[in-house]
Amino acid sequence: MIKRIDHPRWRDRNKIQTEPVVELRGVSFAYDDRTVLTDIQLEIYPHDFYGIIGPNGSGKSTLLKLMLGLVTPDAGEVLLWGKPLTENTNRARVGYVPQKATAFNASFPATVAEVVATGRIGRRGLFARPNPQDREIVADCLERVGMADFAHRHIGQLSGGQQQRVFIAQALAGEPELLLLDEPTVGVDSEQQSLFYDLMTHLNHDLGLTIVMVSHDIGVVTERVNKLACVNGRLFYHGEVSLFKDRQTEILSRLYGQVVEVVYHHH
Ligand SMILES: Nc1ncnc2c1ncn2[C@@H]1O[C@H](COP(=O)(O)OP(=O)(O)OP(=O)(O)O)[C@@H](O)[C@H]1O
């Protein structure tokens, strides 16, 4: 699975990448008549590890859904790799781990390997039988997330943190170049959380995967991502984390409407 991602254009990290992977141009969106996002303008570039933070109900998940084409903007445009989403034939290049993916019924009748194999559907079609290459990719993705030993266990019998790794493997099985994750560390203990971020850093640095992640935990996120969007109906900040940190108190108090103390976890 790495071969396709590990293309020379991904390897040369010093080369200036001019085309954003994701671009939102003046995007507004309402559920029925309730406006959730207004005039969102942002670009996400190859190799970005991009965090999205904001209060509850501020439109973070909706922002990801716009990038995925699960909802369509009322105004403005969403582009992936320079093409409007409506014309995009490359959705298979995007991996998605939705919110609460880990709230799994313990009796769900599927093994870890079967769940990860469903991540191949975008590549080989719904009814095609898995071939040896599919099986190799599934095994490789489980290995990558440290879950190879659990391949034949039932998904419902795993802990939240283990299930989370399986769903990341499922997304990776589609060989994405862009990985979108919605609150992936909710309900995961701090040790698993740290391992999760190590895995994301590995995928981002070593495989050149572009990662966009919604999170509540400002302290951890700002230690790990390189770019950040602060959203609450509109964008309050969008850009380098280093520049965010210089103005963090002011940005966060505008974003949350109160003074916010950021807790940093040191491991
Ligand atoms: N399918 C839907 N239909 C109607 N309203 C919705 C729908 N999905 C979300 N909303 C509303 O839109 C607003 C933004 O929701 P969204 O899930 O994008 O926020 P969020 O920042 O991800 O929230 P949280 O941090 O609580 O997960 C919320 O007020 C929510 O209640």
UniProtKB/TrEMBL annotation:
Parts forming coiled coils: none
Domain (ABC transporter): residue spans on this chain: 22-257
ATP-binding recorded as keyword: yes
Signal peptide: none
GO molecular function: ATP binding; ATP hydrolysis activity
Keywords annotated in UniProt: ATP-binding, Nucleotide-binding, Transport
Pfam families noted in UniProt: ABC_tran
Entries under PROSITE patterns matching the protein: ABC_TRANSPORTER_1, ABC_TRANSPORTER_2
Listed name of the protein: Zinc transport system ATP-binding protein
Organism: Heliophilum fasciatum
Organism lineage string: Bacteria, Bacillati, Bacillota, Clostridia, Eubacteriales
